[in-house]
C-alpha cells in the first residue's frame, strides 16, 4: 500500500509542504484537510477588514495539479496511537502513516468580555465581520479601539484609519507600540500613525471589553463603538488534546527536523510548531517562518522515506515587513536571529516592497 501522508491545515506552511511532498513522492498518497476550499492569504486580513477583496485560490485545483487529494473539513480529533485523524465531514476517521500538523494560529484569548464584544483579524470570517461593522460605524463617525501594540495591531489601526478617514481610530497598547522594532523603525511607525490620525495610547492595558468600549487597568474606561482584539496569537489545542508533546502555549514540541518529540510519525510546521531558529530563539509567527518550514518538513519526510538522512535546516531572518496603510510601510532589517538593526526602509518604497513580499508568499504557497 502507498505510504499515506495527511497534511492538516492548508495555510502557507501546510500547502507549501503538501505540494512539495506530492511532487517529490509520487509513490505516496498525499491528502490535505482544511476547513475551506480556498487558500487564505492570512497576511492580508487587516486589508480585508478595510474593504480589500482578496484573490481566490481554489485548493482542490491547486492540489490536484500536483497530484494531492483535498478534503474540506475541520480536524476535530487526533488519535496518534491508531494514526487516525477525525474530520467533521468524514464518516470514518482518516488514517495516516505520516501526519503534517499545520493548523496555524488563532487570536489570543482576551479578558472578560472580549469573546462576546470584540472582533479579531485572525481569520477570514472575523475580518469580514469587522469590515461590515467598520463600514456602518464609519457612517456614524464612530470610534474603533484596536487593542494590541504588536505588528498586527499597528497594521490594522493604520489600514482602518487610511481607508475610513471619517472613523476615529485608537490604538491601545499595554507597553510601547512596536517594541520589537528598532528606534528608527518605531519612530517611523508612530509618525505614520499620527499622520493617519490614529490616537496611540501606550501603557493602556485592557482588562475588560464591553459593547460600548474597554476598561483599562486602574479603572479608566475608553469609549469605542467597536473593539478589535489584536493582542497576539495562540494555537488550536488539537495536538494537546491528543497527548502530543507541546511547548510554548500548546505548539507542537519538535526536534531540529520538525518531528514531534513524542510521536515520530508527526511533523509540525508554521505557527503551530514550537520550532527554534538561529541562536535557539523561538521562531517568529510569520510567513517568513511558515514557508521555509513547510518546504523543509517535506524534504525531511521525503529523505527519510527514501532511506536518506535529511539535510539540516539552514535558516536566517533578513527583514520584517510592516504595512502602514496602502501608501506607507516599514521594512525593518534584522539579524539572522530576528533582532532588529537600525537600518530601515520607509514610505512608499517600503509599501511596494511589502506588497511584493506578500505576493511572493502567496505564490510560494500556491504555485500560482
Ligand atoms: C492580520 C494579519 C497580518 C499578518 N501579517 C503578517 C505579515 O505581514 N508578515 C508575516 O510574515 N506574517 C504575518 N501574519 C502572520 C501569518 O499570517 C502567519 O504567521 C502565517 O499565516 C502562518 O502560516 P501557517 O501555515 O502556520 O498558518 P495559516 O496560514 O494560518 O494556515 C493554517 C490553516 O489551518 C487551517 N486549520 C486550522 N484549524 C484546523 C483544523 N482543526 N482542521 C483543519 N484545518 C485547520 C486554517 O483554516 C488555515 O487554513 C499576519 C497575520 C494576521 C492575522
Automatic annotation (TrEMBL):
The keyword Phosphoprotein does not apply. The lineage of its organism: Bacteria, Bacillati, Actinomycetota, Actinomycetes, Pseudonocardiales. This is NADH dehydrogenase, FAD-containing subunit. Its cofactor is FAD. Belongs to the NADH dehydrogenase family. GO terms for molecular function: NAD(P)H dehydrogenase (quinone) activity. Transmembrane segments: none annotated. InterPro entries: FAD/NAD-bd_sf, FAD/NAD-binding_dom, NADH-Q_oxidoreductase. Keywords: FAD, Flavoprotein, Oxidoreductase. One of its GO terms (biological process) is aerobic electron transport chain. Residues 4-288 form the FAD/NAD(P)-binding domain.
Amino acid at each position: 500500500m502507498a505510504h499515506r501522508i495527511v497534511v492538516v491545515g492548508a495555510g502557507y506552511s501546510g500547502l507549501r509542504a503538501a505540494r512539495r511532498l506530492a511532487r517529490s513522492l509520487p509513490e505516496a498518497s498525499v491528502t490535505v484537510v482544511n476547513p475551506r476550499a480556498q487558500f487564505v492569504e492570512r497576511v492580508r486580513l487587516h486589508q480585508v477588514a478595510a474593504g480589500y477583496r482578496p484573490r481566490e485560490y481554489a485548493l482542490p485545483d491547486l492540489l490536484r495539479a500536483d497530484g494531492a487529494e483535498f478534503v474540506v473539513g475541520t480536524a476535530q480529533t487526533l488519535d496518534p496511537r491508531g494514526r487516525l485523524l477525525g474530520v467533521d465531514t468524514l464518516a470514518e476517521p482518516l488514517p495516516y502513516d505520516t501526519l503534517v500538523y499545520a493548523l496555524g494560529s488563532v487570536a489570543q484569548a482576551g479578558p472578560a468580555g472580549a469573546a462576546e464584544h470584540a472582533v479579531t483579524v485572525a481569520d477570514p470570517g472575523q475580518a469580514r465581520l469587522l469590515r461590515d461593522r467598520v463600514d456602518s460605524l464609519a457612517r456614524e463617525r464612530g470610534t474603533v479601539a484596536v487593542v494590541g501594540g504588536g505588528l498586527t495591531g499597528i497594521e490594522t489601526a493604520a489600514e482602518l484609519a487610511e481607508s475610513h478617514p471619517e472613523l476615529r481610530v485608537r490604538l491601545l497598547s499595554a507597553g510601547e507600540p512596536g517594541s520589537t522594532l528598532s528606534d528608527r523603525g518605531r519612530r517611523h511607525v508612530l509618525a505614520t500613525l499620527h499622520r493617519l490620525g490614529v490616537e496611540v495610547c501606550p501603557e493602556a492595558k485592557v482588562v475588560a471589553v464591553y459593547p460600548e468600549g474597554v476598561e483599562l487597568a486602574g479603572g479608566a474606561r475608553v469609549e469605542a463603538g467597536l473593539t478589535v482584539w489584536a493582542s497576539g496569537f495562540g494555537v488550536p489545542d488539537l495536538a494537546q488534546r491528543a497527548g502530543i508533546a507541546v511547548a510554548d502555549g500548546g505548539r507542537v514540541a519538535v526536534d531540529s527536523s520538525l518531528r514531534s518529540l513524542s510521536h515520530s510519525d508527526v511533523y509540525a510546521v508554521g505557527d503551530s510548531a514550537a520550532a527554534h531558529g538561529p541562536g535557539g530563539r523561538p521562531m517568529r509567527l510569520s510567513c517568513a517562518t511558515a514557508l521555509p518550514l513547510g518546504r523543509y518538513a517535506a524534504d525531511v519526510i521525503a529523505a527519510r522515506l527514501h532511506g536518506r538522512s535529511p539535510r539540516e535546516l539552514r535558516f536566517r531572518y533578513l527583514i520584517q515587513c510592516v504595512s502602514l496603510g496602502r501608501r506607507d510601510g516599514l521594512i525593518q532589517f534584522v539579524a539572522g536571529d530576528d533582532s532588529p538593526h537600525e537600518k530601515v526602509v520607509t514610505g512608499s518604497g517600503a509599501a511596494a516592497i511589502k506588497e511584493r513580499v506578500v505576493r511572493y508568499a502567496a505564490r510560494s504557497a500556491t504555485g500560482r
